[in-house]
Amino acid sequence: MRLVFGIITAAIMVMIFVFSAEDGSRSGADSAPLTEMLVSRIVHDYALRTPAEKSALLELASFFVRKAAHMFEYMLLGCFMTLFYETLPFRYPVIKAGLTCVLYACTDELHQMLVPGRSAQFGDVMFDSVGTFVGVCIGLFIVLLYAAHQQQSPKAVVLHG
To answer: Could you tell me which of 60, 85, 84, 68 has the C-alpha nearest to residue 134?
Structure first.
């Protein structure tokens, strides 16, 4: 399982890097169709709104969609990083998984400073950290669930599973 969790974790990190390498206009264009679809389903009279009202709604909703995407991708990273680190002979693998993800979020923001139309945002690191925390909790829950199913301690699962 170590190899599987390691490959999935690395793939998520590459996905985050690729998304961060998109310039500002491309990144915004990628989330625009999803944002418009969500707004049109949530705001019952969206079709009747003026173009200015639609634009304002989309701008506001875009913020939430983009931050939710940040949290979701780091939730995945936190979960799989936890599962991967649990297969290694580390002390405190859950804490190390969380810290690794937050450090990756920081380097991701630094990387975005080098991309045209993008900038580093401390707030994004905070959203990424919230996603990481949720993902680490999910990963830990999976480990504990598996351990309970095997009727062994979580460390025994790692060493013998």
So the answer is: 68
Domain ranges, residue 108 = 2-22+66-160
Rounded distance between C-alpha atoms, residue 144 and residue 46, angstroms: 45
Q: By the 8 A CB rule, do 14 and 6 touch?
A: no
Chain centroid offset of residue 60 CA:
21
Which residue has 């290694």 as its token pair? 88
Q: Side-chain half-sphere of 160: how many Cα atoms within 13 Å? A: 10
What is the number of other CB atoms lying within 10 angstroms of the CB of residue 41? 9
Residue 52 lies in a domain: no
Do residues 39 and 56 touch, judged by C-beta distance below 8 A? Answer: no
Q: Quick one: pLDDT band at residue 26, thresholds 50, 70, 90?
A: confident
Question: How many CB atoms within 10 Å of residue 48?
Answer: 9
pLDDT at 159 over 90: no
Q: How many domains does the chain have?
A: 1
